[in-house]
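ok so for the tutorial part 2 we go from a plain amino acid sequence to predicted structure tokens. step 1 is just haveing the sequence, like this:
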Amino acid sequence: MKRLTAMASKPSLSSTSLCSAFRLSPSRHTRQWPLTARLPLDRRRHISAYGYTQAKALVYPKHGSPADVLALHTHSISPSHSKLVTLRTLAAPLNPADINQIQGTYPTAPPFTSGFGTAQPSAVPGNEACFEVLSTGSACKDVSKGDWVIPRRTGLGSWRTHVQIDEDKVIKINKEGLTAEQVATVSVNPVTAYRMLKDFMPLREGDWFIQNGANSGVGRAAVQLGKMWGYKSICLIRKREGDEGKALKQEMLDLGATVVVTDEEIMARDFRERVKEWTNGGREQLKLGLNCVGGDAAMAMAKVLDAGGTTVTYGAMSKSPMRVGAGMLIFKDLRFVGFWVSKWGDSLPDEKKRTIDEILGLIREGKFKDVPMVEVPWSWDTKKEELLDAVQGTLEGFRKGKGIFKFGDT
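step 2 — the prediction. this is what the tokens look like for a chain of 410 residues:
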């Protein structure tokens, strides 16, 4: 209501032309102006008579706990011009790294800007999303209205209903046979698993790898890709009691894991002997470990690697240091390396796109399953508290699935 009233006061648009834009006759314009709430949604809220898009975003003016610093802010986006594209968000996941950026504990973060019209320069969290192109500037060549795109680099800030960005900062996706959720979650977890299995240790069909956090998004992706490529896997999960634990083990086996054990079992004295049995008396190679936990559990995993093996660390959920024994380095020549998919993707954008396209192709063919997701509806009327509850849930253990904002009427 306030937005439309403000528009009517501008001299560049007469009341007659404004009424025409909203299919109202001049005679009804003054008398029934409050009834504009009955107009179609796309005319009432999203696009003003001047082409401005109304948007909402979760923003934060400083680092801290999400519950303390996040606010839901409404702002306007000007019409697309030159190489700018205006995007509507379809889906945006909630990753632990997004929370760390809000807290100020992550190496990179979205920039603080005054462009939202907030009282203080603010940033928008979120690194992954699937967007639909609403409009393009006259100089845009690669994307068109209706296309689906994802961010080319991290730090875009995806927890918002709309965004305007330069065309060369997005990657166009062939949306045929895909859901917005699948596209929104492809660039971090599946790509991390793919690159770790391919880039650090040359594995042959029949070789083994071992991983902790196996039921995470990366872990599930590694299981499926490894199975497709002929690799065998030892998958470590946190212990769960009763039927829940049994169900998760079976779920991982159905996904393609060769062996599933708990974090308690790996600390047992006989674990090395069990690994030897699984690997045909040690004749089948186990030279790659994928670690997202850290601490003593990561070291227990590294101890069962064959000589010359590599542990790739991509997370540190336990926040405990990894104490590498000298014998691992001297007598077994083990390597300990790290992998950060954000840095990799930003430095090799073409390879990132190729990897994404290959994974999406597997999804279309039904060969790659989605990670379990918990959808968080986000419409224009969604309250801040509902969104913050979902953000807080990302910090809790034993979640039923990855949280993901699913945008509806925005």
